[in-house]
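Suppose you are handed only these lines of text.
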Amino acid sequence: MQKNILIVVGTRPNFIKITQFKKVARNYPNFNVKIVHTSQHYSDEMSKNFFESFDLYPDYFISIPTNLTVVAQMAEIMKGLEHLINTAFHPHLIIVVGDVNSTLAGSLVANKLNIPLAHLESGLRSFDYTMPEEYNRILTDKMAHYFFVTGSDAVNNLKYESVRKDRIFFVGNTMIDTLIAYQYQIDSSPILEELKITAKKYILLTLHRPANVDTPNGLNQIIDLIQSIHKNYSDTIKNIVFPIHPRTENNFKKYQLWDKLNAISSLVVTKPQSYFNFQKLIKHTLIVITDSGGVQEETSYLGIPCITLRSCTERPVTLWQGSNILLAFNENTICKYIHFFIHPATSQPQHPDKWDGKSTERIFEVLVKILL
Ligand code: UD1
Ligand code: UDP
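From them, the structure of the protein bound to uridine-diphosphate-N-acetylglucosamine can be written out as follows.
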C-alpha cells in the first residue's frame, strides 16, 4: 500500500533543507511525498525564487494574509493544514523542518489529528529561552515520534530528555545535501561581477535575529560595526556585502536608520540573494559575520571563517569541528578577531560526521523501516 508523507515548510531555511526529498522519493514508489508551504515567508526573494532555483514546487499552499501577528499567523497555518489534511491529502506521516513557527504549527496539527510526526533537524538546543526558536524546537520534539538529527550533540540532548533511542536517527545534514547537489550552479553564479566585488576582499554580513535587529540600539551597533571595520581594514577589506533580511530592512526603515546605513560607502546592501548567489558569496568571502543558524553550518562545511554574533549556538559542532566562533556584539572584540582571520593558520575544513550529501537518502532508508 502506498504511504502518504506530507512535508511542512514555511521559511527560507526550511526550503533549502528539503530540496532532495522529491528526487530521492522517485526511487521509492511506495511513498507519495507532497510538500505544503505555510506562506510564513512570502516575498519572492524569500520564497518563490528558491523554489524556482531548485526546480521544486510546493504541492499545496496555505493562503494566509501577510500582516498577521505571530499568534494569528500560527492559527491560520494550523487551520489551513487541518483543512488540507481533511479534504485533499491525508498523510501517514508529517515531517516538520527546523525550528520556525511553521514547524510548531505543523507539529500541533499532527498531534491533534493523531498523525505520526517526524522532526527533521531534531534535538538542537541553544539553551537560550529568549529565542522563539528554542521553544519551537523543544515543543516539537515533545510531540514528535521520529527524530532525524544532524549531529551527536543533538542525539545526546534527546537522550537527556528521555527520548526513546530507537526513534533517534542520526542521518546527517540535509542542508549540506543541497550545498553539494548544486555545486555547479553555485560556481556559475555571476554575483561577484554583478556586485563589482573581488574574491577575498569583502566580508559577507547577514543579521536577522530579533536580539540584534529589533531595537534602534541594535541597529546602530550594526552601523558602528560596519564603519569600524571599514576604518580599521580598508586596505584589506574593500567591501562589506549585506544581503538584508526583510525583518532587518523593515526595522532600519521603521527607526529611520535606513539612509544612515546606505550612506556607508564601502557597504553593498542588497535584497536577500538567491541560494546560488549567496553560496557563491560565502565561498569567496574573507569572513562571514552572521547570526543565522544555517550559515554557521555552511561556512563550517566550507571552512570559511564565521563570526556569529550571538551568545550561544544550537549548533555547537560548528565550534568544535567547524570554522565558527561566537562573539558578543562588541566592535573592538569583533575587529580583533577579523585581524586574526585575515592572517589565518591554514587548515582544511573537517566535515562533521555524515555531512556528506547523503542525508536525505538515509532518511528514506529510515522511512522504509518505520512506514512500510
Ligand atoms: C523566521 C524564523 C527564524 C528564521 C528566519 C529565517 C520564527 C520564529 N523565526 O524569522 O527562526 O531564522 O525565519 O529567515 O519562525 N517578512 C517579509 N517577507 C517575508 C518574510 C518576512 O517582509 O517573506 C517580514 C515581515 O514583516 C515579518 C518579518 O519579516 O513580519 C518577520 O518574519 P517572520 O517569518 O515572523 O520571522 P523571521 O524574522 O523571518
Ligand atoms: N541564504 C540565502 N540568501 C541570503 C541569505 C541566506 O540563500 O540572502 C541562505 C543561507 O545560505 C542558508 C539559509 O538561507 O542556506 C539560512 O537562512 P536564514 O539565515 O534566513 O535562517 P536560519 O538558518 O538562521 O534559520
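What can we learn from it? The domain at 185-342 is CATH 3.40.50.2000 (Rossmann fold). Residues 108 and 286 are 42 Å apart (CA to CA).
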